[in-house]
Amino acid sequence: MKKFWCLFFIFWPIVAIIIFWISPGMNWWFPGESYSPLGAQIDDLFYLILWIVAVVFVGTQIGLGYVLWKGATSKQDDKAWYSHGSHSLEVMWTIVPAGILLFIALYQMDVWAQYRIKANFPENTLTAPIAELTARQFEWRVRYPHPDRKFKSEADVKKWLRQPHPDDLHTVNDLRVPSGKPVLIYLRTEDVQHSFFVPKLRVKQDAVPGLVIPVWFEVQNRAGENEEPELKGSSYEFLCAELCGWGHYKMKARLVAQPEKEFKTYIDELQADQNEDGVSSDDEQE
Amino acid sequence: MSTMAPEETGAPLPHDHAHDHHDIGFVRKYIFSTDHKIIGIQFLITTMLMLMVGGALALGVRWQLAFPYESMPIIGRLLFAAEGGIISPEFYTMLFTMHATVMIFLVIIPVLAGAFGNFLIPLQIGADDMAFPTLNMLSYWFMWPAIFCFGISFLAGGGGPAAGWTSYPVLAAIKEAAPGSGAAQTWWLYAVTFVGVSSMMGSVNYMTTIINMRAPGMTLFRMPLTIWAMFITAILQAFALPVLTAAGFMQLSDREFGTSFFVPSGLVVNNADPTVGGGQPLLWQHLFWFYSHPAVYIMLLPAMGMVSDMLSCVSRKPIFGYKPMVYSMAAIAGLGFIVWGHHMFTSGMNPALGMTFMVSTIMIALPSAIKTFNWIGTLWGGQLQFNAVLLNCVGFVSMFIVGGLSGIFMAAVPVDIYFHDTYFIVAHFHYVLFGATLFGVFGAIQFWFPKMFGRLMNDTVAKWHFFLTFIGFNITFFPMHMLGIAGMPRRYADPYLHPYLEHLLPMNQLMTMGALLMGFAQFLLLGNFLMSMFYGKKCSRNPWGANGLEWTAPSPPGHGNFDVPPICYRGPYDYSSPEAEATGEDFILQTTPPPEMPEEPDSEDESASQ
């Protein structure tokens, strides 16, 4: 029976490893490769940690299995090893993991800095936002600036964010961005907290009441599996990742990345469509 | 002098005044008892009942994820007949909110600090009771208003609080934001305040007792690791809890008195009037996690301590690296105060903070790793006793490895951008809180049951309970890693609405089967516990051949615990030592004087303890 329990404890990490091994093939893995350069870097960091963690997992579970097996096979009248520990072992297994952990921590900084620290944002994105994305229970509202509107400075953008303008263009649950270049949206919420999550692009940012948060990402030009010919671009689902009420699960929307030209056509069509009722955008330019 | 003990002569011995208490009556003895052992057992039984409640709520969650919008057999007809036995999204949000609330506030925190803290602290340090017995009694009885308020919150309209156990404003702060954010949320806040008061009374008591009431010779570094863990936990609780209580009052006042600590201006929530505002919801997140992250260690450290004690005993060998174990617990507690921001990496707080919190969070893996290596080292070369205690403890170590390692992914900020609020985090904290803590608790129940009731629990049933729980646990929670990697967000009443998650339904159904298995396995524990209480094999004072002071007391100990006030001469882990061999045993009680020594404790040790 002792050996049974040893095998029991050795068996399950083997199952765990096998499950991880077959998961990508079984489609229990990332929802496709990342189509954003930053997302690809996040994946790389994930795999780096996964390998380090896998080695530690296998090592500790083998260690645990080994000491159990030795305990199970020792004879009844064998004596336990009278030892209070080992100073050199303690030092070793303090310093080595400390080094590895510190390496992991420092190695992550760069991607985070690119993603979130404003000073590192791609040039000109802050003053050329594609849209303002407003979450509410339980939908996403998109507001594009008029195609002719040019922002001179960040203060100018802030002024635009502060209040809607008659010439703005609006859609719901359908966010279009040009592909192949970094794009920036301003994220906010009208009511409770939400979170903007595009699984395929590995983008996530909470929308916090009272804050307007810039989020940048880039969708690569090659559309691959996400291509939708009738949209003239590639489509990525985005959803809400922060509990926002009973309808949290159904805040489903799509992000469509189109080549620059098609994006421009789309915005122009939207502008023609939404400003046709006599509110001429040209006269109202401030 | 930090070690106080009753005088050997003069003052009546605890043993003597035990006789005075034969006539205190049933109510004073078993209900409003000031005896730490009874209070501990009260906590234990209450938390086991609450474990069943929390488990039932979890099964509701699992039912919906496996069979979304399908009529729940039998129970569905009873609970929500109006909806045809179907779980609505509103009810689903309540289910996971209350599952977490019950499990955290009414099961894990009170079972560790309340049940085992109460029962073990005086016994293991050789005191006759807690420093403040009445406060101790109140700490148990303050649980009941909490349970009552949580219960009322189910009935207060809206189907119960549904803003998650984290109760983030604005969802929780504005009554119109969700069906459960009305009166239900107010009752929830009252309840959290009551559990807070209960914990605080316990924590003050534990600190005082451990500092002042240790038996002569019980120096700090002769304390069992359980006591160290309880001591450190009590400190954590005392410093972190007031912040949660204050934040709770702030949210209450936002809700009831129209203040705006957490509500910014101009929000239009569910067609209510625009908020007047001026507040900031991130403030709540900071305050909440400033308590709730240390709370994670409050929910883990005592189990770590108890597992260390038990592993040493069932391996018949000293704990590997006693002092590194103590220091690493202290390090976990210290670092535990500066890692709360890792719950907020995607929250929009200053990104520079994200970096500092990442470094502290990743570094907290270090003391955890040291502890794991030391547990394996403790088993190494031991004369292992393959009983249910050992199995549960090894289960603890094995599961803690998984839970610890999966934490590194989310500690790394860029990777957390993807994993935040997905099922990966759900897998992680269940591996730590269930896989580690609860297996530790199951082991501890088995191990200290003889001291509580003077009878042994059935080992075979306990092994079956471990076997089924372990398998059910892993079937339920291991696939959650995969769900997380596949990008399935938490708290979704119907994830399959999204095409990229559709293919995960069969996996969720398998997980629900595992959860059912695990749920039913808990009846083995309950059955074993109740049967053994009355029909278990009677046992002597020291059925495990352990060293601690508690094993010198009768089983169960009478009022005042010890026949004679114990004097401690050695550390708690001297299994298989040469001195023990000399007595023909493989253990040596902490009260056994060294052969060449007189009865007086070593005066050097005593000064070292100050």
How are the SSEs ordered, and which strands pair?
The complex is a heterodimer of chains A (286) and B (610).
Chain A: H1 2-22, H2 37-73, H3 87-116, E1 131-136, E2 139-144, H4 154-162, E3 169-172, E4 174-178, E5 182-189, E6 194-198, E7 203-207, E8 213-218, E9 227-228, E10 233-240, E11 253-258, H5 260-274, H6 281-284
Parallel strand pairs in A: 1-5, 4-11
Antiparallel strand pairs in A: 1-2, 2-3, 5-8, 6-7, 6-10, 9-10, 10-11
Helix pairs in contact in A: 1-2, 2-3
Chain B: H1 14-17, H2 25-31, H3 36-66, H4 75-79, H5 89-125, H6 133-141, H7 143-155, H8 183-212, H9 225-256, H10 281-298, H11 301-315, H12 322-336, H13 351-363, H14 365-379, H15 388-411, H16 413-419, H17 423-453, E1 455-456, H18 459-485, H19 505-535, E2 537-538, H20 578-582, H21 603-608
Antiparallel strand pairs in B: 1-2
Helix pairs in contact in B: 3-5, 3-6, 3-19, 5-8, 5-9, 5-17, 6-8, 7-8, 8-9, 9-10, 9-11, 9-12, 11-15, 11-17, 12-14, 14-15, 15-17, 15-18, 17-18, 18-19
Would you give an account of this structure?
The complex is a heterodimer of chains A (286) and B (610). Chain A is an alpha+beta fold. Chain A has 2 domains: 2-72 and 91-119, no CATH class; 131-275, Cupredoxins -  blue copper proteins (Immunoglobulin-like), CATH 2.60.40.420. Chain A has 6 helices and 11 strands. In chain A, strand 6 and strand 7 form a beta hairpin. Chain B is mainly alpha-helical. Chain B has a single domain (14-267, 275-592, 594-608), classed as Cytochrome C Oxidase, Chain A (Up-down Bundle). Helix content of chain B is 61%, strand content 1%. A two-stranded antiparallel sheet of chain B has the order 1-2. Residues 1-21 and 604-610 of chain B have low confidence and may be disordered. The interface between A and B is large, with 99 and 116 residues.
Summarize the structure.
The complex is a heterodimer of chains A (286) and B (610). Chain A is an alpha+beta fold and 286 residues long. Chain A is 41% helix and 21% strand.
